[in-house]
Specification:
By secondary structure, the protein is of the alpha/beta class. Helix content is 26%, strand content 30%. The two termini are 13 Å apart.
Length: 201
């Protein structure tokens, strides 16, 4: 069973729908025991960093997420879910992220002719042999919606990057922790292939 952590963030339904399409048993839940007993866990989300961290902490989900990671369960953060895994964000000064991975979330700098939020399809540069990208071609296009981007402290964990106003770390992987800034569930066949790689880990 794949648990999708429910913390009132946007976009949970489309992740659930994509996984059901792939034939997976899925549970959208905020229940500690259900999350800890799942074969895989996904932290999706669209929303604000500060509000999301407040909700996660209020509901006692921070310790649950740490336990999932510590016990080696494959864990996938999507969009805001990626950002929350890191230490801090320009979006919410003074609010500590989960800090499971080292790095920070920065505001996308303004550039003439480029719209923020970054919303649309961008190509990926694949690097460091990421397990989520097995069978995915270099330059494959995926769908982004974000105003803030990841700068990981350790370049070795970066498995895909893209360029939009600046160089963006688009996907990371460390041990059993995976994360994508883009939305695989909205990225057509390429995205479904990425999710399939995750469920088959």
């Amino acid at each position: 069973m794949i648990a999708i952590i429910d913390y009132d963030a946007g976009n949970i339904k489309s992740v659930e729908k994509a996984l059901l399409y792939l034939g997976q048993e899925v549970k959208v839940t905020g229940d500690k025991d259900e999350i800890l007993s799942a074969d895989k866990v996904i932290l999706p989300g669209v929303g604000a960093f500060g509000d999301a961290m407040a909700t996660i902490r209020e509901r006692g989900l921070e310790s649950v997420i740490r336990q999932v990671v510590d016990q080696g369960t494959p864990f996938l953060g999507i969009c805001l879910g990626l950002q929350l895994l890191f230490e801090r964000s320009d979006e919410a000064p003074g609010v500590e992220g989960l800090g499971i991975l080292k790095g920070e979330i920065l505001k996308i700098p303004e550039k003439e002719g480029m719209k923020i939020p970054h919303m649309g399809w961008n190509s990926l540069h694949l690097e460091n042999d990421g397990r989520l990208f097995r069978g995915i071609e270099e330059g494959a296009y995926v769908y982004f919606v974000h105003s803030y981007y990841l700068k990981a402290a350790d370049e070795q964990i970066v498995k895909a990057s893209t360029d939009y106003c600046t160089h963006i770390h688009a996907s990371v992987e460390k041990d059993n922790v995976f994360a994508c800034q883009f939305h695989p569930e909205k990225s057509s066949d390429v995205g479904l292939h990425i999710l399939k790689n995750f469920v088959e880990l």
